[in-house]
Amino acid sequence: MRAQFWGTRGSIAKPGPSTARYGGNTSCVEVRSAGGTLLVLDCGTGGHALGQALMAARAGSRGHLLISHTHWDHIQGIPFFAPLFVPGSEWDIYGPKGLGQSLRDTLAGQMQYTYFPITLEQFGAKIRFHELLEGSFDIDDVKVSTQYLNHPALTLGYRLEADGVVVAYCSDHEGHSRMLATGQGEITGQDLRHAEFVHGADLLIHDAQYTADEYPSKVGWGHSSMEYVARIGAHAAVKRVALTHHDPLRDDDALDRIMASLQARLPNDGSSPDVFAAAEGQVVDLAPSVAAGAQRSARKFHAEMPVEPALAESSVLLGVADTKTAAALSEAIRDEGIRADFFLDLDEARRLAAKSRPSLVILEHDPPRIDGMAACRSIGAQANGGDHQTPVVMVAAREDPALGTGGGVTEWLIKPFTMAYARARIRAWVLRTACRWVRAAIPEDEERRLASLHAVQLLDTQPEERFDRITRLASALFNAPTALVSLVDENRQWFKSCYGLDMKETPRDSAFCSHVVYDREPIVIPDTFLDARFAENPLVTTEPRIRFYAGCPLILDDGACIGTLCVFDTRPRTLNGPDLARLRDLADLVVQEIRAPRPDKPVPA
Ligand SMILES: [Zn+2]
Ligand SMILES: [Zn+2]
Description:
Layout: E1 2-7, E2 28-32, E3 38-41, H1 47-56, E4 62-66, H2 72-75, E5 90-96, H3 103-109, E6 126-132, E7 135-139, E8 142-148, E9 156-162, E10 165-170, H4 178-181, H5 189-197, E11 203-207, H6 226-235, E12 240-244, H7 252-265, E13 274-277, E14 283-285, H8 290-298, E15 315-319, H9 323-335, E16 339-342, H10 346-356, E17 360-364, H11 372-383, E18 392-396, H12 401-407, E19 411-414, H13 419-431, H14 446-455, H15 465-477, E20 482-488, E21 492-499, E22 505-507, H16 512-519, E23 523-525, H17 538-541, E24 548-555, E25 561-569, H18 577-595
Parallel strand pairs: 3-4, 4-5, 5-6, 10-11, 11-12, 12-13, 15-16, 15-17, 17-18, 18-19
Antiparallel strand pairs: 1-2, 1-14, 2-3, 7-8, 8-9, 9-10, 20-21, 20-25, 21-22, 23-24, 24-25
The structure holds zinc ion (2 copies).
């Protein structure tokens, strides 16, 4: 195989004299097998020059474009990729199966008339779109394996095997362990899985936007440190590591200095791969070495899991007796485009688990009526055959962590839940990604707490000036468009006072205030997009689009925490210490009003 870099810059194209040597174009790598199969890894702005070169060589009539993810720096070259405009040409475009719209629609989005004069429909070439999950498939003489990377967008890494050599492409990816990102610690868990995916590669092309020193201020941005990549490469017995996705703030001289420092720190006892910074235009020829080839085939490659063909649909095995819950879950599963298989007894469940290798098993535990733990033990052995770990989710009225850990339960889904919450969780379980929407746990004193809440008789009452003036003040004081007095009921949060928002209540699943009620402490979230508990919460992703939140608990004299006084904003921001003290003062005023006799009711004698 032969690889050529056409774009090595991350985030945004950065052409100019200071980036001339390593290149200013965004991600694009051309890979060709000895048999002539043409693969293009990502099509950032570097794709323009590649397209021109293919046209000049009359070599672009058949090709395959593998997209890691649809961030702009990986797709912006597509509307400028000349071979796609040639009638009679044939191209296959592959990318991760998205969460909402199709790959085709996502790519068409950047070619709407608002942004670009030509639409996707006007490409002359015959184009086929393929949406990928994790797995393996063949493109002519090249075996392609995919595995999810750790990035804010749904992103796939690619492993290409042909001609006795391996090229792995991982951009964009952030190490799972913070320790590893700073060049320390052991390679375990998801990082180990990542290393196994690239194991034995002759060339690993890897996102390395930052240095270990820069990383602490870039946590969660979805990119690796060079030190992390060098560690992974050494652990995975990779021969050559090409660092790419160079930071747009980094000029050629800075990159030279950083590479010299990195190379000086790598052990020179033969345990380290050859690590270099990829440069635009650079060609890497990969010839199989007999010894290495033999080693590779002798070693079991754990991360390669052709559990389901990469292009096939996933399935969920559903064993829930409660008809209302079963109907809600199967609708949520169907809405995600996933197949649901039902079973009536354990024999059928075992048969289905062995046959269809589900991506997820959902069971119900409601003793003494339904023993979900027994079902879990019996199905788990089938579903988890080999290296394939199928998550098992237990639907129940309450969590039993002790029972769950021993019995093979991956996670609990506590009733009741909204359809939106079930969908978000199912999507995350099937795709093995983190669900960035976590609902609050139920407080230990929940029964007593609800009794106190109902005793103050405020739920579903008319707005009252004595509360509204406090939310008005809070909004003005913190310059926040919205302020609420929120009462957290059994399955909802209900707003006794609501300034700047046209809503009376939301489900408890999505209630920020529910977290404050559980913690019994104020919570300040400067930017929900960066918070793993809230980034995919529907109050963030749709109206009212909360970006900043600060809430103080309302704790009654009997100790019950019944709700919050909170403010939120559609911009990310924060509160300083004195601000937080003022929010507490206002929350105390709310509690005082709750304690006071209601003005519209006769005071009991
Ligand atoms: Zn990128
Ligand atoms: Zn990205």
